[in-house]
Amino acid sequence: MKTDLYIFFRKNPFVRLIIPLSLGIVFQWYLQFSSLISISLLVAGLLFLIIYNFFSLFQKYKLSMIYGLVMHFIMFSLGMLLMFTKDIRHRKSWFGKKYLPEMTIKAILEEHPIEKPKSYKAEAKITRMITQDSSFNVVGKIIIYFKKDSFDHQLKPGSQIIFNRPLQEIKNTGNPGAFDYKRYALFNEITHQVYLTPEDFRLLNVRNIVWFESFLFSTKDYVLNVFKKFIPGKKECGLAEALLIGYKDDLDKNLLQSYTNTGVVHIIAVSGMHLALIFLLLDFVFKPLLRHRRTKWLHPVLVISILWIFTFITGGAASIVRAAVMFTFVMIGKTLKRNASIYNILAASAFCLLLYNPFWLWDVGFQLSYTAVLSIVVFYKPLNNLIYFTNKSLAWLWSLLAVSIAAQILTTPLSVYHFHQFPVYFLLTNLFAVPVSSVILIGELILVIFSPIKFLAVFLGKILDGMIWWLNSFIERLEQFPFALWSGLQTNILQTISLYIFIAAIVVWLFQKMKPAFWIGFGALILFFGIRSYSFYETAHQRKLIVYNVPKFQAIDFINGRKYFFAGDLEIIEDPTLTNFYLRPSRIEQRIAPDNQLPGLKIYENQFIFDNKRIIIVDAPLARTDDATPAKIDLAILSGNPRLYISDLIKQITPAQIVIDSSVPAWKAGYWKKDCDSLQIPYFDVSEKGAFVMNF
Questions:
Q1: CA dist 187 to 89, 237, 456, Å?
Q2: Which among 32, 268, 384, 520 is least buried, having the fewest CB atoms inside 10 angstroms?
């Protein structure tokens, strides 16, 4: 085994380098060391390499193991340094270091404002901050929300605006299991947000945009206009936009959920599959150039250039950049007539991407893209060779199934960890959707090319509209099949790692016939189910109350074991978007299901007795009572916009703690918090601190 590993790592040096680099990135993010430490470690490692070069061959041989360790140490230190320098908060010119609410800000829009239900949203980079006495250049990004009913449609990428409105720091909801939006925004160098009305900003006449960015935006707009003009159906047009260039703003949300639930969302997330198809088309189109010596060099140049232009037009997501880098390496190797190991190409592309943006290590698209390709590389051939067909159609069908199964092996643990579900009919949907979407993709490219010829474009548009409708109908109907989706799955990071150890060990055991690998895999599986059993035991004995942070709404869960009772606004239950975003992650994490007769919970209008604790929801002034002494309450939840003062409230009840939920206006919450401070009553503001969790 040592020999096999030695040969493998010898042939694939980037596999050796990517591991310590990734560990250094993770280490720096969670421990946040200063740059001085990573620079010192890096310099120390480089000094050793310089000194090592002066050693004799015998000394080098004796120190070869130390040399290898130092190389890993250098990569680890490089990962730490990359992570530090990429973090916008560590830059001296970051606007957050000097920002004051009274400052005037100059910003440049980086995208077309996107229409939302109540506003237009756009990312912008801050370039300058202005005070009464001076002004200075800064860096950093914000999200701007423009008032919808009076939106200025002159705003576009490169538009410069000046405004004087206080910026708000981006915060998470703080709900259990919620998506870490603050981290996601930070990884994109965005730290603040602001809401602007037409009176709040001034649009400057000069646009600030480089020619290449202008070309990309113009090309993207042209493609979108072609689809809107020639593909009649709204849902079909939205899917066409997502399929070719990854534009999802017009994509029907319910349709997107259907594709997710059936396991084929990857076909509408521009990824390696799309780029592979375009790569093959370009390779075929420009093949005649290879026949002549003078034009031979143009073939790789044109293929690589068009691939990268397409990559930038789609927005340059990690998954498609991965594919672009890999195909670039393949094309260069092919041109130089050098065959590199696919494992080395895969690791080298990941290495390059992490050098450019270490935050991509947390990107779900990056993770799934690499695990899918690695899974296909490792498992496709063994699976495909399991069954042999003499019939070409059946052989092609089985190879397509083998690819789908192979890709699923290594992506499933990650998919379950991130999305908490598994599409049961993924084989059936992929068998149909992948070839059909490939034909649609080629059709879209032909439509864009021939769009100036109106009669032909109209004809192609109608054909594409019909094909996309057919594909959508198939996906939506399949979603309705019984047991189509295994949802509510919950695994933690340790379980995910143990699953990967299990898969790796079993692969080694099957291919290398090593018994120790079997026992390692068995141990990893025991660990996985041990963690799962403990989690089920814990949740079966839990008793808690959660007041969720759902802006402008009241939302409370009483939890006993693996059941919950919801008390709150019906609008949340009726709106799947609100439920899925704010409540569902917590309920998956707690492993709970609804129960309108929750054991241990007694309800008296707006009062609850749960596990012998008295809880009251105050969303209106309390009715006056003749009791001489105020009623003792363990928890008072203030909700909505009732006309009351805390000083009057405590005449009727004596709360051990007050919780101000997220339906309370900020100005009123401010008054109540001041009253609580003066009366020395403990309080918790959900809008400010996130969800309130009370364990019993």
A1: 11, 31, 44
A2: 32
CB count within 10 Å of CB 389 equals 12
Could you read off the pLDDT of 104-130 as tens digits, one per residue? 999 999 988 988 888 999 999 999 999
**Structure tokens belonging to residue 126:** 């801050």
- Nearest by Cα to 344 from 21, 18, 12: 12
What element of type H or E holds 565? strand 563-568
Q: Domain check: are 69 and 113 in the same one?
A: no
- The burial of 540, by beta-carbon neighbours within 10 Å (0-12 exposed, 13-18 middle, 19 or more buried), is given as exposed
Count of domains in the chain?
Answer: 5
**Distance in angstroms (rounded) separating the CA atoms of residues 274 and 453:** 26
- On whether the pTM is more than 0.85, the answer is yes
For residues 251-260, give the mean pLDDT: 89
Residues 553 and 610 in one domain: yes
The string over 185-198, giving b where at least 16 C-beta atoms fall within 10 Å of a residue's C-beta and e elsewhere, is bbbebbbbbbebee
Strands (E) in 131-255, as ranges, are: 135-137, 141-147, 160-163, 168-169, 190-196, 201-203
Contacts of 544 (CB under 8 A, 6+ apart): 559, 590, 693, 694, 695, 696
- Tell me the per-residue pLDDT of 382-432, one tens digit each, with 9 for 90 and over: 999 988 888 888 999 999 899 999 999 999 999 999 999 999 988 889 888
The whole-number pLDDT of residue 196 equals: 93
The number of angstroms, rounded, from the C-alpha of 616 to the middle of its chain's C-alpha atoms is 38
- Give the gyration radius of the chain's Cα atoms: 29
Supply the DSSP symbol for 289. Answer: G
Tokens of 366: 């990056």
What pLDDT sits at residue 625? Answer: 67
Instruction: Check: CB of residue 343 under 8 Å from CB of residue 12.
Output: yes
List the structure tokens of 367.
């993770």
Same domain as 572, residue 550: yes
Q: Give the Cα separation of 48 and 70 in Å (integer).
A: 8
Cα 441 from Cα 314, distance rounded (Å):
14
Domain, as residue range, for 162 = 95-209
- Other C-beta atoms closer than 10 Å to the C-beta of 586 total 22
Q: Which two tokens stand for residue 613?
A: 């604790």
Angstrom distance (rounded) from CA 425 to CA 484: 6
